[in-house]
Each structure stands twice: as C-alpha cells, then as structure tokens.
Amino acid sequence: MDGTKAILQGRGLSKSFGRGAAREQVLFDVDIDVREGECLAVIGGSGSGKSTLTRILLGLETADAGVVCYDGLAVNSSQSVADAAVVDTNVDSGAARVKPSSLSAMRKLPGFQALRRESGLVFQDPFGSLDPHWSVWRSVAEPVMLRHKDMPREAVLERVDQALRTVGLDPAVFARRHPANLSGGQAQRVAIARAIVNEPRVILADEPMSAIDVAARVQILEAFRAIRQARPGTALIVVSHDLGVVQHLADRIVVLHDGRVEEVGETDAMLADSRNAYTRQLIDAAS
Ligand code: ADP
Ligand code: MG
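A: This is the predicted complex of the input protein with adenosine-5'-diphosphate.
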C-alpha cells in the first residue's frame, strides 16, 4: 500500500568526521528515498553509517555533499534534488556547486522548517528523551502546547490520551507517573507517544528496541504497527539490527555497508532470497 511518492529524498550524500589523519569518511554518495506511508528499514553492521544517514535525512546533521529534500523542498542546501544531477557534473563551477549549509543556515530553509514541524524522533535510550522531573502527561502534552499555543486544555487532553492509547498505555494508569516509575518499555512508549502527538508525516526511530528487554519489545513493535494503522500516510524510518523486527514492520529495506548502499528492496523478497553476499551475511547472522 506504499504510495509511490517520495516524501523524503537524499541524493549523493557524503559525510566525513574528524580532521587530518583522523578524518574518516562514513557516507559515500548515498541515494535514498522514503515513500509516503511506507515503513523503510535501514539495516547494516555497527558503524555502517545508519545513524549518520538518517540524522542527515531528518535535518539533524549536515552533509558534506549532497541534497536532502522533504516534500520537494530543500532541507540542507539551496539546491533541489532536480538540480543535484546538474550540479554533479559541474562541481568545479563554484556558483553551481552544492553548498551544504551549516546547521544554522539549514534552519532557515523551508524544507527544514516543514520537516521539523512534521517529523517525530525516537531514539535508543527511552529515558534519555524524557525529563525525569516531568510526568508522562507533561512530556506528551508539551509538544502540543508549544505548537498550538491557544489550544483549549480539553483538546490537549484528548490528543495526549489518544497518543498514549495508540502506544498501548492507559492514560488513567500512566499519565501521572514519572520516568522513575516506568519500565524501559513503558518509557519508550511514552517517548513514542511524545513523537507522534503532533501527528508527524515522517517518524525516525533509531534502534528503538535495542535498549529494551526482549519481553517488552513486542509492545514497542505493536505501538509502531498501531501508529501505521491509525495514520496510514505516515512514513516510518526504522534503524534496526533486529531482522525479526524489520520483517514484522518494514515494507522495504535499505542495506548500508561501510557507508555505501549495498542493496534496496522489498522486505519479503530481500529476506527470502537476496543474492547480495553482505545482506545474506546479515540474514544468516540473525537466524
Ligand atoms: P551506525 O549507526 O550504523 O552504527 P553511525 O552512523 O553511528 O553508524 O557511525 C558511522 C561511523 O561514523 C562510525 O565509525 C562512527 O564512529 C562515526 N561517527 C558517527 N558520529 C560521529 C561523530 N559525531 N563524530 C565522529 N565520528 C562519528
Ligand atoms: Mg546507530
């Protein structure tokens, strides 16, 4: 049911960290599309660049070269994806060159601003994204109140309740709790409720289950499935090395290997009979 429209596009993305002899290139000319309504999994060994790539796509990090577009609008440079192909052949003509912006310049771009408004982020450590002094209710309500400054309290309540219910947490039980009184799985579901409460069109979840005990992972999985069911247009990018999770959640998979795209394909077909040696290695290691 994935639409063919790419809501988020990366073209020619490259990135290095460090300087001089310590300089290390972690992404090499990566192209990636995230389609409206799909769940796209990004898999690959540790250090293959999954977090760096997805952070660049979501505008959390600059690229050294390449273009990110959200809904056709530039996220990380003044170039559009359509221009990028032209620019590639013109790298030496200064004016036409893709000039990746600094984070502060990025913030002024229309695509960046739209993406920031319309995306939700979930990371590995659930407690890292929750303020220990805040109740569950406050953590989930805060993004709503910041966005809709004059929304009536009843409406905020309704939104928060709905977000908590979607991730399988009963508001009557959890709204007043603080992070210290939540399990890892519960805290991660609160973090997910916080990420979805403003109804994002794109969600990035980077290893959302890696820090969660195995017994609680299925509830996180269920939460993401419920989100997709409630809002089928939502694009979900899941970074995971758990192929069981990927199989249950993802429509398509991007395989990253040492900063390069190794393979892209439909989940079932790839897991069943990928001919790619690196992908097979990942699959065999997981089974
Ligand atoms: P993955 O998420 O696939 O494990 P990452 O994108 O986190 O991979 O990292 C890719 C490589 O980039 C690793 O070698 C990592 O050490 C390096 N790296 C990531 N972020 C930084 C950073 N902020 N500074 C320096 N090196 C980094
Ligand atoms: Mg990572």
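The chain is about 40% helix and 20% strand. Residues 17-18, 26, 44, 46-52 surround adenosine-5'-diphosphate (ligand 1) (CB under 6 Å).
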